[in-house]
Here is the input.
Amino acid sequence: MLGDGAGRRTDPHPHWKEQHERLRRHKPTNKAIVATVHEVARTVHFMPKHRVQYPDVGAQTYETQHRERQLAYLKRNQAQLSTWSRNPVPSFLL
Here is the structure.
């Protein structure tokens, strides 16, 4: 997936690995790799420019955020489905 620039594969950070997997579901693998590397490059460029360190919050935090996003998505869909079921299909569409 990701390398160190010398053609060697490196062990990715959990955040970048998750980002790549998420992109790979919607894009071809090569485009997902380019998009992930572009995001890494933007982050690496930002850190010394603004003199900040990378906030390594750990994989557990990313998993918790992902779970919260999934629950929010399911709640929105549940609300849309309940609205749809209360409004029956008009008879002229049957």
The longest helix spans residues 59-86. The chain has a mean pLDDT of 79. The chain has three helices and no strands. The helical segments are 14-24, 29-50, 59-86.
